[in-house]
Design a protein that fits this description.
It contains 9 helices and 12 strands. With about 290 residues, it is of the alpha+beta class.
């Protein structure tokens, strides 16, 4: 089990380092729940595996100069479709399990780290599917929240998956809210022999780009001007923002225009990068922020 966890952490680290911007040792140790010394050992192992690491003046790391994917490799769209189709197959299909593992491994090359490579993602989906079918509660073990920046267990009543199986839609018992939970941020699933109690409160509405349900908050129009640094970090944390960001002509800045169902996530981001962005609108949101 120790060796398996080590392999998973190395694969996760490779995926993180393949995505810009460069990552600090402190950030990586927090994500991996390891010491700085352990992260440095993993970095040495990654070098031995043949990856070229770039280190900037701030002691942040990034994997560069990857080999080009051969022309016969799957495209990003093909990998995503294959993964979605396979995840919809019955859990007892051993052929599906075998192919799915290969697809996850291949997609790490084809989609350039857009998904954290973890061998147990398919098993997590299977456990959640069982809980949904049997109307049972589960605990999302050590869930890594991008909104609260905390790692904690979440007691939920799972409802369904998002269209692409990237997220679980579930009713969180503690908060009494319907939320979207990123599958890749779930460490494990603890299956409970406890029936769901709040099915009348289960809702499955479309979330905003930060994952908040319309029923659980107040809608705000947001308009921001971001530096390249702020844009890259925002895109990494919240990939769904990309269609709503445009580069300003003849400038090195970017404009984000969107509507959110809950201002918590974007507000935390704004407060964390006060020198890298400017809040332009709306008046309602500016009043809220003030």
């Amino acid at each position: 089990m120790h060796n398996q966890n080590k392999i998973l952490r190395v694969l996760q680290l490779i995926s993180l380092l393949k995505k810009e911007p460069a990552k600090s040792i402190r950030f990586l140790s927090g994500i991996l729940e390891s010491t700085d010394r352990t992260v440095y050992r993993y970095l040495d192992l990654i070098k031995e595996l043949g990856f070229e690491l770039q280190r900037d003046q701030h002691n942040r790391f990034l994997i560069i100069n990857e080999d080009k994917v051969e022309s016969y490799s799957f495209s990003n769209e093909e990998v995503q479709l294959l993964k979605e189709l396979l995840l919809s197959v019955g859990k007892n299909s051993k052929l599906k399990d075998s192919i799915l593992k290969k697809i996850y491994f291949k997609s790490e090359i084809a989609i350039h780290g857009n998904h954290i490579l973890k061998a147990h993602l398919g098993k997590i989906v299977e456990k959640l599917s069982d809980a949904i079918q049997n109307e049972k509660r589960v605990i999302l073990k050590d869930y890594h929240s991008a909104n609260s920046q905390k790692i904690s267990d979440r007691l939920v009543e799972p409802i369904t998956f998002s269209d692409n199986y990237n997220s679980l839609i579930a009713f969180e018992v503690e908060t009494g809210e319907n939320k979207y939970f990123n599958i890749e941020r779930i460490t494990d699933i603890i299956e409970l022999n406890t029936n769901q109690e709040f099915q009348e409160k289960h809702k499955n509405d479309k979330p905003d780009i930060f994952g908040f349900s319309e029923l659980n908050g107040e809608k705000f129009d947001i308009e921001l001007r971001l530096t390249l640094r702020a844009y890259l970090i925002l895109k990494e944390e919240y990939p769904l923002v990309q269609p709503y960001v445009k580069k300003e002509p003849n400038k090195e800045t970017y404009l984000l225009k969107c509507s959110v169902n809950n201002p918590k996530a974007i507000t935390r981001f704004i407060l964390g990068f006060p020198k890298d962005l400017e809040v332009i609108g709306s008046e309602k949101y500016i009043d809220y922020l003030n």
